[in-house]
Amino acid sequence: MRWHIDPPLLDRYLAGHLDPAGSASIEAHVVACEECRAAIAGQLRDPVLDAAWNTVADRVDTASQPWLVRALRRLGVDDATARLVRATPAFTLSFILATLLSVFLAVAAAMAVGRPSSASLFSVIAPVLPLVAVASGYSSRLDPAQEVVRATPYSQYRLVALRTVVVLVPCLVAGTLLGLALPGPWYQAITWLLPGLALSALAFALLGRISAVVTATVLGLTWTYIAVVWARVADDGLAPFRPAAQVLYLLVALGGVALAVSNKERFDVAGRPL
Amino acid sequence: VSGAPLGTQSDPELLQRVGEGDQDALRELYGRHAPWLLARLRHRCADDGLVTEALQDTFTAVWKSAKRWNGSGEVAAWIWGIGIRQLVGNLRKAGRAPVPVAEPARDATLVSAEDAVLVGVEHGDLAGALNRLSPELRAVVQATVLDGLTTREAGRLLGIPSGTVKTRMMRARAELRGALA
After folding, report:
1. Of B24, B89, B96, residue with least CA distance to B56
2. How much is the ipTM here?
3. Which of B25, B95, B103, B123 is 20 to 30 A from residue A86's alpha carbon, by CA?
């Protein structure tokens, strides 16, 4: 009962051989007729369709990704790496909250007891924050994407480097804000930065050799011990954070990065079975 | 809506799923509507690169704005409205002169009988009158009346000022009226 476009007519339309009025009426009909649309879909086997779909799927995929993945891809990081970076445990809200809360509680508890100055205490504890975040990016126990990471055939070194950088930025910002928020002199918000970077760089260098949990624990305890003893011996809570000490941390940070870069290959060989 | 296989769902149902972020529903919708849209856009612009781009942009826009479909009318008509505007927009962005589609070679004897049926015109010969219009006038009729573009959009598609679109439309109307009188 209903009229449909017959195959020869459809052929002439698709080939562009139909006169304008004929084309116009076919087009008007197609908008309203499901069967004729299906007929065109059956007839028009054009590779352009598949290629265009791939582009659309890619865009849709990108649009539904978390902003961090999109931002990384815009910076030229490939899709797989961006997703693995995003899967860094330090980005889960619970992880961030837990870490920030422990720093906060440690400082608050020490202040309640009324022992050393809050400024030095915060500066001792805060550098552990980026250390833990960086190390967690390579821990098999903490990383939900560890299976994927291990099965990924490209450089582990590159992934650890990227995760380190991506984790450090929010971590340093959060730590600085926390330093400003806690009671104490304003400079406690920045005195911890270089020690934090130094610890992160060392962790980055060691991750190719030692497991992440061991790295974080050893470095964290060593740092705390050194800082506390240093302050005692100098009888000055801020001694580990004065300019000369800061220069030392900067050198350690640079040395850690240099060590990591020179040991690139170890990440792929020794780094795997962490 | 949720349980049924995608292939058996209606266009509005699919579009609703697309609005909820279902990529498979978008794939199904693409399979149904991309072929005719590609064919129709190719009748508007001879540059296959621009046409392909418009096709991609259309379904990207469908993905983003599926929620804004008001639920009335044909989904196909809605998609066409997006598609032709993407083409017009890309033409403008590319700063390129539009590439008109070549006129088909006429085989009048073969065509006219079907035209009469297709357009359903038995009294006045509207199809014949439309075909007899000069290509410039017909392009304007097609863009405004059949494709639903505004004067400004039609001007962009055809690469002419919108004032010219208006005057050509007036002339085309006069000629069609004359042919049907």
Report:
1. B89
2. 0.80
3. B25
Q: Cα distance from B86 to chain A (closest Cα, Å)?
A: 14
Closest residue to A56, CB basis, from B11, B30, B101: B30
Q: Give yes or no for B73 touching A (CB within 8 A).
A: no
Distance, CA of A197 to CA of A185 (rounded, Å) = 21
Do residues A164 and A137 make contact, with C-beta atoms less than 8 angstroms apart? yes
Q: How far apart are CA A220 and CA B157, in angstroms?
A: 66
Distance CA A1, CA A85 (A): 60
CB A87 within 8 A of CB A145: yes
Tokens of A53: 């779909």
Question: Of A11-25, A154-168, A229-243, B126-140, where does mean pLDDT reach its minimum?
Answer: A154-168
Q: Are A168 and A200 in contact (CB under 8 A)?
A: yes
At B123-176, the pLDDT tens digits run 467 778 888 888 889 889 988 888 888 999 999 888 889 999 999 999 999 988
Query: Of the candidates A98, A89, A91, which has an alpha carbon nearest to the alpha carbon of residue A144?
Result: A89
**Chain B residues 6-35 with CB within 8 Å of chain A:** 11, 21, 23, 26-27, 30-35
Residues B14, B1: Cα–Cα separation, whole Å: 9
Q: What does the pLDDT read at residue A178?
A: 80
Interface contact flag, B104 A17, Cβ < 8 Å: yes
